[in-house]
Design brief:
Layout (H helix, E strand, L loop, with lengths): L4 H31 L9 E3 L7 H14 L4 E2 L5 H13 L3 E3 L7 E3 L15 E2 L21 E2 L1 H11 L10
Parallel strand pairs: 1-2, 5-6
Antiparallel strand pairs: 3-4
InterPro entries: PEP_carboxykinase_GTP (IPR008209), PEP_carboxykinase_GTP_N (IPR035078), PEP_carboxykinase_N (IPR008210)
Protein name: Phosphoenolpyruvate carboxykinase
GO biological process, one term: oxaloacetate metabolic process
Length: about 170
C-alpha cells in the first residue's frame, strides 16, 4: 500500500487529536470526581427525550448518568433523523469520511488506542461461581477463571466509573 504525504499527515493529526481528547477527558474526569455534586444538576439531553423511555430504562439511564457525570445525554431512538444527526456529528469531528462512490458509504478508521476484548480482563458475573466456571482438578489452573459476584461487580463499578464521562456525551 502506498500512502501519500497528505495521508500520513492526516494520520499523524488524528493521533494527536486523539491524544489531546484523551488528556482532556482525563482532566475533566478527575475534576468531576472531586468537584461535581451531580444530584443538584439537571441532565442536559441534547437528543431524544428521557420521558419517552420506559421507567426501568429511564431509571437505569439516570443512575448511570449520576455515576458517570456526562456533560450531555443522547437518548437513542433509532430513527432516520438520528442516523443523519450522528453521521453529521461524526463527520464534523473528523471521525468518519464520506465515500462518494456508493450511497450511504462512510470510512471510519480504527483508533490505535482501541483494543479488543482481552480474556484476562473479561469476567463472568453470576450469583454462584459453579454456574459458569468449571472447577479444575486440584493443582490445575483453570483457563476460565475470571468470575465475579454481582455484589463485587457493583462495588467495582462504583469505584471505577465516577466521573468517567465528564466533559463528554453519554
Amino acid at each position: 500500500m502506498v500512502l501519500s504525504n497528505n495521508t500520513n499527515n492526516n494520520i499523524a493529526q488524528e493521533a494527536r487529536s486523539t491524544s489531546m481528547l484523551s488528556e482532556a477527558s482525563r482532566v475533566a474526569s478527575e475534576a468531576a470526581k472531586k468537584n461535581i455534586d451531580f444530584q443538584s444538576r439537571s441532565l442536559s439531553v441534547i437528543y431524544g427525550k428521557l420521558v419517552n423511555l420506559k421507567p426501568k430504562v429511564r431509571n437505569f439511564v439516570e443512575e448511570s448518568a449520576r455515576l458517570c457525570r456526562p456533560a450531555n445525554l443522547h437518548i437513542c431512538d433509532g430513527s432516520e433523523r438520528e442516523m443523519r444527526h450522528l453521521l453529521n456529528v461524526m463527520q464534523q469531528a473528523g471521525m468518519i469520511e464520506h465515500l462518494p462512490k456508493y450511497k450511504n458509504c462512510w470510512l471510519a478508521r480504527t483508533d490505535p488506542g482501541d483494543v479488543a476484548r482481552v480474556e484476562s480482563k473479561t469476567f463472568i458475573v453470576t450469583k454462584d461461581r459453579s454456574e459458569t466456571i468449571p472447577t479444575p482438578k486440584e493443582g490445575v489452573k483453570g483457563l476460565l477463571d475470571n468470575w465475579m459476584s454481582p455484589e463485587d461487580l457493583r462495588a467495582a463499578v462504583q469505584e471505577r466509573f465516577p466521573g468517567c464521562m465528564a466533559g463528554r456525551t453519554m
